[in-house]
Design goal:
This protein is α+β, with helices and mostly antiparallel strands. The longest helix has 23 residues, at about 1-25. The chain is about 15% helix and about 40% strand. The chain is built from two helices and 15 strands. It has helices at about 1-25, 250-270; strands at about 25-35, 50, 60-65, 75-80, 85-95, 100-110, 120-125, 135-140, 150-155, 165-170, 175-185, 195-200, 200-205, 215-225, 235-245. Strand 12 (about 195-200) and strand 13 (about 200-205) form a beta hairpin. Bound molecules: calcium ion.
Length: about 270
């Protein structure tokens, strides 16, 4: 009887702690694009073809050639003939009140332009107000000038304190997971940090760079070739998302501590 009572209390403690953990691990997604329900061969319905490719041949559409989550991904392929830009817009995320915004995608580069210059750039901003720019991710040829592997640089190296060359000699035809934790200060969105993760390993930390102090929210990520050059590049994107992490509730430890306290009291009472 005594052991059964203690087991019940212990079980209750476990439910409380597991329940708290479940709440703390939740993320509130602004969007999560798997492209799996999209029509193969069509431009993805959740994206905006802001500057359509004109001239030459290009592929900006949903494909089932390869995917991280099956069966589809978003193929961005250009032959170098023209400029282009695609946007993923979403509801405003305020930068001065929300913390721990996570921006993530999986990318598979099939072909990259030779030379360690230009390339394709991923940018964040407030669509109606230029200037909310940070965590710029630029993929290009490797540092040796070759196109048999690819690299990533950060545009704001030297300004933000982060690294310039983020990664080099990444393999073609391989899926990589990139995640950015955007962690603005609760009171000043210009003094936070952006942490870069490659396949869940922290590889770069930089300070947030905002050109305008008025740019206090983000609602757009866009991809475009640098310097208006659409270098011959073929890449696939999948599992593209924005989420706000729900902070660890400070009550978690209190709940566990109280449950453990209840066990201690129960033991004392039964002994007494
Ligand atoms: Ca997919």
């Amino acid at each position: 009887m005594r052991n059964e009572f203690i087991r019940k209390i212990a079980g209750l403690a476990m439910v409380f702690s597991v329940g708290s953990f479940a709440v703390s691990s939740q993320a509130q997604f602004s969007f999560f694009d798997t492209f799996d329900a999209e029509t193969v061969g069509a431009f993805p319905s959740t994206w905006t073809n802001t500057t359509p490719v004109s001239g030459g041949t290009a592929a900006l559409y949903v494909t089932n050639n390869t995917a991280s989550s099956l069966p589809n991904s978003f193929e961005l392929g250009t032959d170098g003939a023209s400029n282009w830009r695609v946007d993923r817009r979403f509801a405003n995320i305020p930068m001065n009140t929300v913390s721990q915004i996570v921006y993530s995608f999986r990318i598979n580069v099939q072909q990259v332009s030779p030379g360690f210059s230009t390339g394709q750039q991923f940018e964040l901003q407030n669509f109606n107000q230029t200037g909310q720019l940070f965590a710029n991710f630029r993929m290009l040829g490797n540092t040796s000038g070759g196109s048999n592997t690819w690299s990533v640089i950060n545009q704001y190296a030297g300004i933000s304190g982060g690294n310039s060359l983020i990664a080099n000699n990444l393999n073609l035809n391989q899926w990589y997971h990139w995640k950015f934790e955007i962690d603005p200060s609760p009171t000043n969105h210009q003094t936070g940090q952006v942490r870069w993760y490659l396949d869940n390993v922290l590889i770069n930390t930089e300070n947030i760079v905002t050109v305008s102090a008025l740019a206090t929210n983000i609602n757009t990520v866009f991809i475009h070739p640098v310097n208006n050059q659409a270098n011959p590049t073929i890449l696939y994107l999948d599992d593209f998302y924005f989420a706000q992490e729900i902070p660890e509730p400070t009550s978690t430890l209190l709940v566990i501590a109280s449950a453990c306290g209840a066990i201690w009291v129960a033991r004392r009472r039964l002994r007494g």
